[in-house]
Design a protein that fits this description.
The structure holds two protein chains of two kinds. By secondary structure, chain A is an alpha/beta fold. Chain A contains eleven helices and ten strands. Helix content of chain A is about 35%, strand content about 15%. The two termini of chain A are about 25 Å apart. Chain B folds into two domains: about 240 residues, Rossmann fold (3-Layer(aba) Sandwich); about 140 residues, Rossmann fold (3-Layer(aba) Sandwich), CATH 3.40.50.920. Chain B has 13 helices and 16 strands. In chain B, strand 6, helix 7 and strand 7 form a beta-alpha-beta unit. Chain B is globular and about 70 Å long. Classes of the chains: A alpha/beta, B alpha/beta. At the A-B interface, strand 1, helix 2, strand 2, helix 3 and helix 5 of A face strand 3, helix 3, helix 5 and strand 9 of B.
Chain lengths: ~300, ~400
């Protein structure tokens, strides 16, 4: 039975943690674990997820969980995987669940090493496009022209000037068996992809778009709506790559202009009205259009 | 039956590690550590050693991989030197805090800049506050035996801390000495398989590495210190147990060498101790009352044992290959801190010698003893540590 249809009422990531209202990441993690089941060891780098789930004496994790440092989650996971192999605990799988700062930036070297070695780890990046734990500073995952606390918009700056790092492509270039992107706005699709990734061995990567109401600046009851708009605009393409080939793409049923997505969030509010930064908004639209063409969205 | 072989120091370490059957080995190359991990890799490739060998992209990851393996309940090992050890620093603090009992070799080498592959102790000394237990060894045989003991010490349920065996690069790692290695059955009897109470277990899920604040962080830190203090006793017991098995006794936390009735006691650690012993013997034969305290265990710092050995001496001359810039050598500072306020404490003089592989020979030791005697006659401590063999013509004004 495909993972997304499995009746799994067992909660492995339970309530009581300290995430902000409407946290996309917390919801994503809960559904990731629904798809993996309980025979997993989870490694989490420093970041929001570590902080809101681990005040000493409390834990929402109903699977063995370890946080060590910010930049070494892939290497910790490699060590866990090596130990499981040595102990012949073959039924237990290793997962990293970490944010974009730990994945795109400070843990990038360790991630590349883990991928190159072919270690049996499913790496899940819950991507909210900035360092939320420290107040929303720019990361390599921050989308172009978003304002962050270290890339603020000003009269002569439209926010972050660089494009988001194309990490799924970089991961795929390591020759790994499974790469996928997902969104917390499409939970069934997310669970299906995690289930599919669990069927493979070796390094696998899933990048989940997880809107953050606190830093992106939208009401906390609109997380799924904002996530959905990201997908519908073409800015967040959802696909699966198996052995280097794109095998599935989530088609956009009703395309929306990026402006609608930008308007919904304070981090882009400096771009609108469009008279000051008209060209910049057009560039963002170009990114979405290129995605639509490239992936056939 | 003693199996005596002529081994390179690195190979002796590899044999010791092999005898301890680690589940996981992870390494990144850096001189002069390489021969150890190359030899282990060959043992794995030849099927002589059944370990998962993880070849990583940095020392940071090497230390992280063995940390992950240790948390998952496996015995694990790595080795590094110099810059590699510094790169591991953050990992070592975290793993000591998490009470992960892996073993590593710190092959001593100077720290950049200037870049150098020559030996001194700046690298491992800079990790002294991390919570990692540190041993320093004088010979390849002591390196072998200390590594075997190290796993048992690390995994002791009352200790549960990483252990680093520090050995001088080149002088020990790349020289050949006769080394006696243990029979596997003997090693197995001494060191049973690692069976931790806590590990990452899907049947008993626990959270590791939690966030803590002012309500509990101090207690976590104090617990490491308490484990080290408890460790002082256990380390001596474990060394004795191994000595009974092998017939080789290197001492406990320290080795007191000809300290009886000594007026001047030298203190050192690492391979330079061999040279100091020669010098002590020579000076003793000349009628001078000289002795030596060799530090085997640097963290936890064995000040009670040191006090027992140096009590009654007039001067302690600390010879060390590290320096805390703007202050003094670490070993001298440790000793002074513990002696301060003690009645009849000897005068402690700090000598910096052997940085970057600068030769320390009998002449150097004689000069140090001479300066120690003079300082004692004057009755005043040196205001500044004395840098043995420093070439003033190389220095510009103001340093």
């Amino acid at each position: 039975m495909p993972a997304e249809q499995m009746p799994n009422h067992e909660e492995l990531f339970v309530s009581g943690h300290r995430a902000c209202h409407g946290c996309g990441m917390a919801l994503a993690v809960r559904h990731v674990l629904k798809a993996t089941g309980k025979n997993v060891i989870v490694v989490t780098p420093t970041g929001c997820l570590e902080t809101f789930t681990s005040p000493y004496g409390y834990s929402p994790w109903r699977v063995p969980w370890i946080h060590h440092l910010f930049e070494n989650a892939p290497s910790i996971a490699s060590g866990v995987a090596a130990a499981l192999k040595a102990q012949k605990r073959d039924s237990v799988r290793v997962l990293v669940i970490g944010g974009d700062g730990g994945t795109f930036d400070i843990g990038f070297g360790a991630l590349s090493g883990m991928l190159e070695r072919g270690d049996d780890v499913l790496y899940i990046c819950v991507d909210n496009g900035a360092y939320m734990n420290t107040g929303g500073q720019r990361s390599g995952a921050t989308p172009m022209y978003a304002a962050t606390t270290t890339d603020p918009a000003g009269s002569v700056s439209p926010g972050k000037l660089q494009r988001k790092k194309d990490l799924p492509a970089i991961v795929a270039a390591h020759g790994v068996p499974y790469v996928a992107t997902a969104s917390v706005a499409y939970l069934k699709d997310l669970r299906k992809k995690v289930g599919r990734a669990m069927e493979y061995h070796g390094p696998r990567y899933i990048q989940i778009d997880t809107p953050c109401p606190t830093v992106w600046g939208f009401p906390s009851d609109r997380t799924l709506e904002v996530g959905r708009m990201g997908v519908q605009s073409g800015l967040i393409p959802l696909f699966e790559m198996e052995d280097g080939t794109i095998t599935t793409v989530r088609k956009i049923k009703k395309k929306i202009p990026v402006e609608a997505y930008l308007k919904a969030q304070k981090r882009f509010s400096h771009l609108l009205p469009v008279d000051l930064w008209h060209e910049e908004v057009q560039q963002i639209q170009d990114i979405a259009d290129r995605n639509i063409e490239k992936y056939g969205l | 039956m003693v199996d005596l072989q002529v081994l390179e120091g690195s190979e002796a370490v590899a044999f010791a590690v092999k005898a301890c059957r680690p589940h996981v080995i992870s390494a990144y190359p850096i001189s002069p550590q390489t021969h150890i991990v190359e030899r282990l890799a060959k043992m794995v490739a030849d099927g002589e050693l059944d370990s998962q060998y993880v070849r990583v992209e940095s020392e940071f990851s090497a230390a992280s991989v063995i940390s992950g393996a240790s948390a998952a309940g496996s015995r694990a090992y790595t080795a590094s030197s110099s810059q590699g050890l510094l790169l591991m620093t953050e990992v070592l603090y975290a793993s000591a805090g998490m009470r992960l009992p892996f073993v590593m070799t710190g092959v001593n080498r100077a720290i950049s800049v200037p870049i150098s592959i020559q030996v001194d102790h700046q690298d491992t000394i800079s990790l002294r506050d991390s919570g990692v237990i540190q041993f320093y060894v004088e010979s390849s045989q002591e390196a072998y035996d200390t590594h075997v003991a190290a796993f048992k010490i690390a995994e002791d349920p009352g200790i549960l801390l990483p252990v680093m065996v520090c050995m001088d690069g080149w002088i020990l790692t790349h020289s050949y000495e006769p080394v006696s290695v243990m029979e596997q059955v003997e090693a197995d009897r001494f060191l049973p398989p690692f069976r931790p109470i806590n590990f990452l277990d899907v049947d008993d899920p626990k959270s590791w590495g939690s966030y803590a604040e002012e309500n509990v962080l101090m207690e976590f830190k104090y617990a490491i210190h308490a484990a080290m203090n408890y460790g002082k006793k256990r380390i001596k017991e474990i060394f004795s147990e191994l000595a009974e098995l092998t017939g080789r006794n290197h001492g406990g936390l320290i080795e007191a060498y000809r300290t009886e009735g000594a007026e001047v006691i030298l203190m050192a650690m690492g391979s330079v101790v061999g040279t100091v012993k020669e010098a002590v013997d020579a000076l003793r034969s000349e009628g001078k009352k000289i002795g030596l305290v060799k530090i085997r265990c640097y963290r936890p710092f064995p000040y009670e044992d040191i006090w027992n050995a140096i009590h009654g001496a007039k001067v302690v001359g600390v010879i060390e290959a590290n320096f805390s810039m703007g202050s003094e050598g670490a070993l001298g500072m440790d000793l002074k801190a513990k002696l301060c306020g003690r009645r009849n404490a000897p005068l402690v003089l700090d000598f910096i010698a052997g940085l970057g592989g600068r030769e320390v020979n009998e002449g150097t030791i004689r000069e140090i003893v001479q300066r120690g005697m003079e300082a004692h006659k004057r009755g005043i401590p040196l205001e500044e540590p004395y840098w043995a063999g420093l070439d003033p013509t190389m220095l510009t004004q103001g340093g």
